[in-house]
Each structure stands twice: as C-alpha cells, then as structure tokens.
Design goal:
alpha/beta, D-Maltodextrin-Binding Protein, domain 2, five-stranded mixed sheet
Length: 318
C-alpha cells in the first residue's frame, strides 16, 4: 500500500518542524497504521483461501488471535499517539511558581505527564552534557543554557522567561530594617549564599557584596548552599542568621511568615535574566515544545510578579 508523503511546516527562525506539526503527524501516523493493520489482516485472511467467515467456522482459536491482535494494535497506537512524558530541569527559585504551572498543565492535559526536578542551574548544565534525560531546562541565568545551545545540546534557541531579584532574608530577625551593611554586625555569625561556582544567584550575591565593598569583610561568615533553595533552608533552620536568597523564595508563604526581607538594589549586580531551552533529546517531543510555550507564557503574565520576578530595577526594603 503506497504511503502518502508528508509536507512539514518549518519554523521561520530555526527551520525545525513546529510543535503543532508533531501533533498533526501523530494523528496521521495512527491513521496510516490502522490502514496497514487492515491491509495485513486482509492478506492474512486471504492466505490459504481463508476469509473472515472461514475464521469463524474454524473455531475460537483464530478468532481470539484476531481479537488479541486488534486490542494490541489499538493499545500501542493510542499510547504512541496521545500519551507523552517529559522531565523538566528547573532552577530552584522557580519551585513555587513552577509547581502551580505544572499542576494546571497536567490537569488540562491528563493524557500527558510533566515532571520537574529542581536544583542548581550549573549542575543541570553539566548533567545535560553528560546525557541526563532532561527534556526542558529552565535556568536561573542565560549563560548556562546558551553554552548548551552553542555546544549542540539544545533544540531551541535560548528564550528569556523571567528576571530574578535578590533579597536579604532572615527567619529570626526583621530583615526589612536591614541593609547589606548590617551584615558586618558582630552578632551575625553566619551568612548564607548559594555557591557562586554553579548557582547564578550565588554569583549575583557575590557581585552585590563586592560592589558594596563588603566581600572581604564578611567572607569569613559565609556558608554556601548547593542551590538557592538549599541556601534558604540554612536560614530557615537557624544554621545561618541571614541569607541572600531569591525574592521568589522570600515571598513564599513558607518563608514569608518568618522574619522579613530587604530587596537588594539591582544596580549592585548584573541582571538575573533567566532562560529556557528545549534540549536536543526532546527535539521531536511535541509535549516538550507545548509545555515550554505554556510555561513561558504563564511566567510572562501576573504569575511572574506574584512570585518575585521582575524586569525593573529597584531597591526598597520590605
């Protein structure tokens, strides 16, 4: 049976098939697969002068084989055409915003599954290079996903989805009345920041402390979290009296009910522009493209400001 050739619609910017085409092609694949099933059954029935009525006449055995074949074909086709699963690697500052986005997406698409792993952007980048099975990467900066794109590990260009903010936060002190200069207070023994080596928020915290002329003065007090969520945990549990964390975390009810925060001026550090890519392994995954588009759209709406992301400079304490 001849198979009709497909015509793909190409993305104008990167010449890849658009994610809508993947859905269309899956439907076409199911249609043509059924045609082949019917064709194969016809050949089978004709072989040896058999027909469908002959199958019924020869007993239940051949009928059951036919039924099982049809059930198996139906199951395989429906699973391949509709059920998809993707794994998303996301920076820890997205924890509370992303949880709501994923829940809404999964509810609207019950046949698909989106699972998110939160952690350090730098470590995610290294893992993706080593073949980790991540389909989408939401980084806390632009550099890590851009390096992956430049090295051929991305199926999409890097897209900015949010701009992060830094805040001084404490669980046991009123940080809203503090500034960075307050970190010199002898009563403050431990200051938590994310590890600048692989966490974008840690890099920006170091930049802010250096710009304020405080890095050398407080460096002996610093304790480093693996990521920004781990850093906040240091402060929450009392292992550090104060921390420089993502505003997105300081605004969350779990942390907001303790102490307070002071917004660190953007002028003290480079912008915390955050980018996302679809990884190379997910190039043909319609779900990866659909979820990325959905999440970026949601992060660009009111959910962004509600969860502590912004694109304008500021410096007022709260």
């Amino acid at each position: 049976m001849p198979r009709r050739r497909r015509n793909w619609t190409r993305c104008a910017s990167c010449s890849r098939p658009t994610h809508r085409d993947f859905v269309r092609v899956q439907i076409h694949e199911m249609f043509y697969a059924w045609r082949y099933v019917i064709f194969d059954l016809t050949v089978w029935c004709r072989a040896g002068s058999m027909n469908l009525s002959g199958i019924a006449a020869r007993g239940k055995t051949r009928s059951m084989m036919l039924v099982r074949f049809l059930i198996l074909a139906c199951s395989l086709l429906s699973s391949a055409a509709w059920a998809e699963k993707v794994t998303v690697a996301a920076a820890s500052d997205l924890k509370f915003a992303m949880d709501g986005i994923v829940a809404a997406f999964n509810q609207a698409h019950p046949n698909d599954s989106v699972q998110v792993v939160f952690g350090s952007s730098g470590k995610f980048q290294s893992q993706i290079r080593q073949g980790a099975p991540y389909d989408v990467f939401f980084s806390a900066d632009l550099a890590f996903p851009q390096e992956l794109a430049d090295s051929g590990f991305a199926a999409s260009p890097v897209q900015t989805y949010a701009v992060g903010r830094l805040a001084l936060w404490s669980a046991g002190m009123d940080a809203s009345k503090m500034t960075l200069d307050s970190l010199q207070d002898p009563q403050i023994k431990r200051i938590a920041i994310a590890n600048p080596k692989h966490a974008p928020y840690g890099k920006r915290a170091e930049e802010a402390l250096r710009a304020a002329g405080l890095w050398d003065k407080v460096q002996s007090k610093l304790v480093f979290g693996e990521n920004i969520a781990h850093t906040a945990q240091f402060v929450k549990t009392g292992n550090a009296q104060v921390g420089i964390i993502a505003l997105a975390l300081a605004l969350n009810p779990e942390l907001a009910e303790h102490g307070g925060y002071w917004l660190i001026p953007d002028a003290l550090h480079e912008p915390l522009e955050q980018g996302v890519i679809v990884t190379k392994r997910a190039e043909s995954s319609g779900l990866a493209w659909r979820f990325t588009e959905y999440a970026v759209d949601r992060l660009g709406q009111s959910v962004t400001t509600e969860h502590g992301f912004a694109g304008t400079a500021g410096g007022d304490g709260r």
